[in-house]
Amino acid sequence: MLKYLLPTRSVVLLVLLLLSGCKSKTATDSADPVADSGPEPLLISDANFQTEVLDSEQPVLVDFWAVRCSPCLEMKPAIRGLVADFTGRAAIGQLDVDANPLVPEKYDVRQLPTVLIFRNGEVVKRLVGLRTKDELAQALRAVDASSQQPNDNDPGNRTNHQN
C-alpha cells in the first residue's frame, strides 16, 4: 500500500508548487532589474552584420552569446552598461549564435562568450570567456584610442624634414 502512496504524494507536491506560484528562473528573468535597465545593445544577425558591423564608421564590440550559456547571461549587464558609456564613440551589439550560425562560423567563434571588437571592418581584438564591464571597456578604449592616432604611413600625416 505504501508504494502506491509515494507517487501520489509526489504528484500532490508538484500540484501544490504549481498552484502556489512557484516559478523557475528563466534567461529573461533578471536577478537585478537595475542592471538590466538602460539602453539596449544592437541586435546583430547574419542578415545585418555587414551594415551594422563591417560598414560601421566607429568601432563595434560584438558579444557572441547564447541563451544556454550561463557566463553569457552573467555578462549581459556589463554589455548593457557599455552601451551607455560608449554612446557616440563605439557601437555595442549582441549576436545570438544559435539563431545566427553564419557569422560565428566565419570568425571561428568556438567558445562562449566571445567578444570581437571590429574597426574598419576588421577584427582588432578577441576576448574569450566571461569578462567584467571594466575589462570590456578597457579593451574598447584601447581600440578607440589607437583608431584616433595618426597613421605614420599616411602621406598626409608625414612631416617634411628636408632643409
Describe, in plain words, how this protein is organized in 3D:
The chain is α/β, with parallel strands linked by helices and 163 residues long. The protein has a domain at 33-142: Glutaredoxin (3-Layer(aba) Sandwich). Helix content is 37%, strand content 17%. The protein is built from 5 helices and 5 strands; from the N terminus they run αβαβαβαββα. The chain has helices at 2-19, 49-54, 70-85, 102-106, 133-148, and strands spanning 42-44, 60-65, 91-96, 114-119, 122-128. It has a 5-stranded mixed sheet with strand order 1-3-2-4-5. Helix 3 (70-85) links the parallel strand 2 and strand 3 (91-96). Helix 3 packs across helix 5. It is globular and about 35 Å long.
Biggest sheet architecture: 5 strands, mixed
CATH fold node name of the domain at 33-142? Glutaredoxin
Q: Give the CATH level 1 class of the domain at 33-142.
A: Alpha Beta
Q: From the helix content, strand content and strand pairing, which structural class follows? A: alpha/beta
Please name the CATH architecture of the domain at 33-142.
3-Layer(aba) Sandwich
Percent strand equals 15-25%
Compute the CA-based radius of gyration: 23 Å
* 3D shape: globular
CATH H level of the domain at 33-142: which superfamily?
Glutaredoxin
Helix coverage percent of residues? 25-40%
Number of helices: 5
Strands in their spatial order, largest beta sheet = 1-3-2-4-5
Element-level helix/strand string: HEHEHEHEEH
Can you give the mean pLDDT?
79
CA distance, first residue to last residue? 107 Å
